[in-house]
TrEMBL record:
Protein name: VOC family protein
Organism per entry: Curtobacterium citreum
Superkingdom per UniProt: Bacteria
PANTHER family: PHNB-LIKE DOMAIN-CONTAINING PROTEIN, PROTEIN YJDN-RELATED
Any Pfam family the entry gives: 3-dmu-9_3-mt
UniProt-listed InterPro entries: 3_dmu_93_MTrfase, Glyas_Bleomycin-R_OHBP_Dase, PhnB-like
Domain PhnB-like, first and last residues per copy: 3-111
Amino acid sequence: MPTITPFLWYDDQAEPAARHYTSLFGDSRVDSVARMPDGSALVVEFTLLGQPYRAMNGGPGHPHTDAVSFQVDVDTQDELDRVWDALLADGGEPVACGWLRDRWGLSWQVTPSMMGELMTGSGDPEANARVFAAMQQMVKLDIPALRAAAAGH
């Protein structure tokens, strides 16, 4: 059966990136590191939340872009804050509406798991519009403020 594995290209930081990402989530680990003759990492296989990934030190010329990002759904504001802060650590950059770029330039969306419900689940177009408007004013998402917007407060 075919499988699809996200494959990430780094200049020379695949192993530190994989180790950082796997430190953030349960059911995550570095599975293997294929090394060059000089001992540096070439390909790193790792698992995030049960999903396999590969990363390669391929050299410069292929930077990450916002065209591909990873979305992390969280249940609580504390979890959102923890993941957000960890992904921004040591040089990441907040963007807007729950998006950020980590120190390696990889784009992430850190979102409440109930975001779909807040945006469309009520069936009330005005509530949906309020949630969307509130989200557009945020950089890091604020779950209580999004819920308040949905409720009309």
